[in-house]
User: Fold this.
Amino acid sequence: MSSILKFNLDDQLLAKIIDVWYGNMRDDYRINRYFYDRPQAEQAQGLKKLLSALLATVPVEPEKISDLADQAFTTAFARGNAKPSLVNNRDFAILATLMNGNIVGDDDGTPRLTLLCPGHSHFLRLQPIDEVYDVALELLKVTLEQFNLTSETVSQFINFVALGKDSVMGRGEPIYESEERSSRFTTHG
Assistant:
């Protein structure tokens, strides 16, 4: 997998952009509740590695991209559960899905979300809505403009990130799937 962009951001500039973007996302009241309370530097590191691989001019194997995405989703969205319970909010996730109409189904009509990688489940369990991704894109555009990048570069980068919306929201295809890695999202285990 290699970048569809016609330019290559240097890794140091990309790291700075991600640091600012991540800070903006964690500061924005519309989406900050989705992020787990880990140090920002730790959370941003996974996204830096993933975007560096996605923007690489040399193709990166899908299994490697999947591993990087797994790390990025886990560090950003995985919660610790100090008080295990037999019943938790995940047990009723399907009810919220049915009530808000955000259903992605199989051919038989059964609600189904597709995982990009195993760690993606940490994000999908938070039941994000499309506006979450839209806010992240809005904040990315503001961030890129702060770095005085050309409007063409900003537009290309925004479009590149926008292409991932359906996949991140659970409506895409897995990055890499094997017998050990299922792309089937479940609310238990």
